């Protein structure tokens, strides 16, 4: 996770985070065993936080929209929901609902 995201999750009133990860991503080797062990240890430490959920989609599951790339679902204080797909930072693409604005909760 980026350091800004880690700081956001560590503050007094952190947002709820639900991460959905494809099993294949967890099994793909990046670096040596020590790098992989460190990455998995970090994921477990973040997932242990009360406001964080990590869900894994089994490798044998059929194709789903989430495989097209990362996306963010946002529930706003008024209950409205929106989603956008992450591509290049300057080209976030709205998938549903209202256009997400800059959130004051996690300033840049």
Structure description:
The protein has three helices and five strands; from the N terminus they run H-E-H-H-E-E-E-E. A three-stranded antiparallel β-sheet has the order 3-4-5, with no helix packed on it. The protein has a two-stranded parallel sheet with strand order 1-2. The protein has helices at residues 3-9, 23-27, 33-47, and strands at 17-22, 52-57, 71-75, 81-85, 93-96. The chain is of the alpha+beta class and 108 residues long.
Number of helices: 3
Radius of gyration based on Cα positions: 15 Å
N→C terminal distance: 15 Å
* Main sheet characteristics: 3 strands, antiparallel
Share of β-strand residues: 15-25%
Structural class: alpha+beta
Helix content: 25-40%
Q: What global shape is seen? A: globular
Low-confidence stretches: 98-108
Count the strands? Answer: 5
**In what order do the strands lie side by side in the largest sheet?**
3-4-5
In short:
With 108 residues, the chain is of the alpha+beta class. The chain has three helices and five strands; from the N terminus they run H-E-H-H-E-E-E-E. A three-stranded antiparallel sheet has the order 3-4-5, with no helix packed on it. Strands 1-2 form a two-stranded parallel ribbon.
């Amino acid at each position: 996770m980026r350091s800004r995201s880690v700081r956001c999750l560590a503050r007094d009133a952190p947002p709820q985070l639900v991460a959905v990860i494809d099993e294949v991503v967890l099994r793909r080797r990046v670096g040596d065993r020590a790098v992989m062990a460190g990455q998995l240890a970090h994921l477990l430490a973040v997932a242990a936080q009360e406001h964080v959920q990590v869900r894994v989609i089994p490798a044998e599951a059929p194709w789903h929209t989430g495989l097209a790339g990362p996306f963010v679902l946002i529930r706003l204080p008024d209950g409205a929901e929106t989603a956008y797909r992450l591509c290049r930072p300057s080209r976030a693409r709205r998938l549903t609902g209202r256009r997400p604005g800059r959130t004051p909760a996690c300033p840049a």
